[in-house]
Amino acid sequence: PLHLTFLGIESSCDDTAAAVVRGDGTILASVVAGQTALHENFGGVVPEIAARAHAEKLDLCVEEALATAGLTLAALDGIAVTAGPGLIGGVLSGVMLAKGIAAGSGLPLVGVNHLAGHALTPRLTDGVSYPYLMLLVSGGHCQFLHVAGPDRFTRLGGTIDDAPGEAFDKVAKLLGLPQPGGPAVEAAAARGDAKRFPLPRPLLDKPGCDMSFSGLKTAVLRLRDDLVARQSGLHEQDRDDICAAFQAAVADVLAEKTRRALAAMPAPVLAVAGGVAANQRLRAALQAVAEEAGASFVAPPLRLCTDNAAMIAWAGIEAFGTGQRDGMDLAARPRWPL
Ligand code: KG4
Ligand code: ZN
């Protein structure tokens, strides 16, 4: 479907986004309005605040995306919208707006699974062919997907508790580092000694590709409390060493589980997506695993690894190409496994 041009709409978490994408992989516009400042004082995303902000900003984002692309609705071939999984208030805002635009313009409507959006991104950014192995690692997700077609996903395993990004954020909080925690922990880790404190490698003793990260966070909490009690305070070097140990543990777990996923369902390409894929230490570890397995490694640019609407427009184009059309009964789904 190379000639198709789609509008994409995303509002399932804390980013309000709209994009215009062509089937040949050209991103004509990609607008992302974050909400970090709105949630900053609450230690996490507050669903009610998120829903209200989406409702306020969605049509502006759509207008801006169309203006940047230099197109009117008449020039489009369809509208793709995230229909789940996610915070229901936000998903509803997006789905309602998309239905309104579809009804008013007569354009076809395609409901997209947010995870499919992430999982299909390497095809948009790097033209990757099916099949490939995708490791999705963000603040909300952590799973291995073998991707064989736009609607052919096999889940090989994932976290049984926290997502790695969530763990990075919580560790940052425990150590008094700013949010989002990932970049702060990575910066501190670069100055630290990963060998000083031994941390567990959860679930490596169990077969399969499932992972667990909440125990690591607890181990960091205990380590911090021990140090504080012994020396009445945490020195900067302690903090950096803890960050390095934590990051190394996460990297080891993800690398070994990726090795197993590639062995279970071999693929010529290993791709990553999600905010945690920004981590250089992690990227290096995963790249090494890919090389070992004779696979190439693809990491889309960060702005397309994190939540955005270009991936939704793209997934919509792929789904449209296989015949998917949704009606005014398209439902917003808080849960929607691939
Ligand atoms: O994909 P994303 O933008 O949002 C969702 O979770 O949907 O991912 C955000 C997560 C945050 O938890 C953040 O701390 C983490 O990605 N992150 C990182 C890094 N940059 C962002 N984690 C580790 N290292 C980084 N450099
Ligand atoms: Zn996401």
From TrEMBL:
Q: Does the keyword Secreted apply?
A: no
Name its co-factor(s): Fe(2+)
Q: Which GO terms describe its molecular function?
A: iron ion binding; tRNA N(6)-L-threonylcarbamoyladenine synthase activity
Transmembrane region positions? none
Localization of this protein? Cytoplasm
Q: Which residues bind Fe cation?
A: H114, H118, D307
The record describes the protein's role as: Required for the formation of a threonylcarbamoyl group on adenosine at position 37 (t(6)A37) in tRNAs that read codons beginning with adenine. Is involved in the transfer of the threonylcarbamoyl moiety of threonylcarbamoyl-AMP (TC-AMP) to the N6 group of A37, together with TsaE and TsaB. TsaD likely plays a direct catalytic role in this reaction.
Could you identify this protein by its name?
tRNA N6-adenosine threonylcarbamoyltransferase
What is the species listed in this Swiss-Prot or TrEMBL entry?
Paracoccus sulfuroxidans
